[in-house]
């Protein structure tokens, strides 16, 4: 991947990400930010179709920003900002409305899921659907196209949205001539393959997640809750069927992983001990970012300063793109 490619990602502020969220999308963007020019924003406008409490949006936005900083995003290469701070985003969204077919929105997964739920419940298909939800992919296309992005790291669930951004860019280019680059999604690890505490897919809706930067005591409680089979300590255990081992692999290096694999197979280690090993590993890997996160959350002015500076950098690019679009669409 050539280094002059521009990386862009948005983080919807929905509370502390869990391990699945992190590996599914954020880790890729943090890694890419180490050697690419990166635009990274807190997608607070995208939260509004579901969250109607400003205090919650604001708090979760700080958490999302503190999280990305604590996990090591490269702030020299990255403009980190709030989506809502860039006025051009509202404008580009409005412009793109006019080249986006309604039918494309009808095919969006999240809208279709609502329609299916409503149909099954025998109520109006659009019940509970506001226009923020319905036009969510247009705002997201505007996010991506405003900053001339080449690479968009996202979780698997967001792949369709990036494809829509390509489609919308294509519709625009067809009418008005070559204007927007077509962005490429980069998909992270499949969250569906990361087991939660109960062995099912790790997901907030199953209440089986391990939040990434929670206090040590909470982390310990969660790890101890992992469901296992009833093998005795003496028995040999299959590491590949164990949630404990699977999660350990995500945090440990190859040597440590091989050593734990051997202990599973050899027998003589109870699940209690295996959980303690897992807890200690996660705890040590995350202790530094957790301290940084807690520091930032106690000093949100530091986050504000970073977001302010990031918005200034983002605006420089955004205003140029918008000027081009206005000229093409309005002749102004
Ligand atoms: N929709 C994304 C999510 O729910 C967040 C997001 C908004 C985003 N705008 C974006 C991601 C642009 C990548 C690029 O996670």
Overview of this structure, please?
- By secondary structure, the chain is mainly alpha-helical.
- It has 2 domains: 220 residues, Rossmann fold; 79 residues, Tyrosyl-Transfer RNA Synthetase (Orthogonal Bundle), CATH 1.10.240.10.
- The protein has 14 helices and 5 strands.
- The protein has a 3-stranded parallel beta sheet with strand order 1-2-3.
- Strand 1, helix 1 and strand 2 form a beta-alpha-beta unit.
- Helix 3 crosses helix 13, helix 4 packs parallel to helix 14 and helix 10 packs antiparallel against helix 13.
- The chain is globular.
- The model has no long low-confidence stretch (mean pLDDT 96).
- The chain binds tryptophan.
- The site of tryptophan (TRP) has 13 residues, from strand 1, helix 8 and strand 4.
Low-confidence stretches: none
Distance between the termini: 37 Å
Percent of sequence in beta strands: 5-15%
Globular, elongated, flat, extended or rod-shaped: what is the shape? Answer: globular
Count the DSSP helices: 14
The total of beta strands comes to 5
Distinct small molecules: tryptophan
- How many domains? The number is 2
Sequence of secondary-structure elements: EHEHHEHHHHHEHEHHHHH
Q: Which percent bin holds the helix content?
A: 55-70%
Briefly note the structural class of the backbone: mainly alpha
- Major beta sheet, strand line-up: 1-2-3
Task: Look at the structure and give the CATH class of the largest domain.
Answer: Alpha Beta
């Amino acid at each position: 991947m050539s280094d002059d490619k521009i990386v862009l990602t948005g983080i919807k502020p929905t509370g502390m990400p869990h391990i699945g969220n992190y590996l599914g999308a954020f880790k890729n963007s943090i890694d890419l930010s180490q050697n690419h020019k990166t635009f990274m924003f807190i997608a607070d406008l995208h939260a509004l179709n579901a969250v109607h409490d400003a205090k919650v949006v604001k708090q979760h936005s700080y958490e999302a920003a503190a999280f990305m900083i604590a996990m090591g995003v490269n702030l020299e290469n990255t403009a980190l900002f709030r989506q809502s701070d860039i006025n051009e985003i509202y404008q580009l969204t409005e412009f793109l409305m006019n080249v986006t077919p309604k039918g494309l929105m009808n095919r969006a997964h999240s809208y279709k899921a609502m329609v299916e739920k409503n149909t099954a419940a025998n109520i109006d298909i659009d019940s509970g659907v506001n226009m923020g939800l319905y036009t969510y992919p247009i705002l997201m296309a505007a996010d991506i196209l405003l900053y001339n992005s080449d690479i968009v790291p996202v979780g698997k669930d967001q792949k369709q949205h990036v494809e829509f951004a390509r489609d919308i860019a294509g519709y625009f280019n067809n009418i008005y001539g070559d204007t927007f680059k077509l962005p490429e999604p980069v998909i992270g690890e499949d969250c569906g393959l990361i087991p939660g505490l109960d062995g099912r897919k790790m997901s907030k809706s199953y209440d089986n997640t391990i939040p990434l930067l929670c206090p040590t005591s909470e982390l310990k409680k969660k790890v101890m809750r992992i469901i296992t089979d009833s093998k005795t300590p003496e028995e040999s255990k299959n590491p590949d069927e164990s949630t404990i081992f699977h999660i350990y692999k995500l945090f440990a290096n190859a040597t440590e992983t091989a050593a734990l694999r051997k202990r599973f197979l050899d027998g003589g280690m109870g699940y209690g001990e295996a959980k303690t090993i897992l807890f200690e590993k996660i705890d040590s890997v995350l202790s530094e970012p957790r301290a940084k996160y807690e520091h930032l959350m106690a000093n949100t002015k530091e986050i504000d300063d970073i977001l302010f500076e990031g918005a200034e950098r983002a605006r420089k690019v955004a205003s140029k793109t918008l000027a081009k679009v206005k000229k093409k669409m309005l002749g102004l």
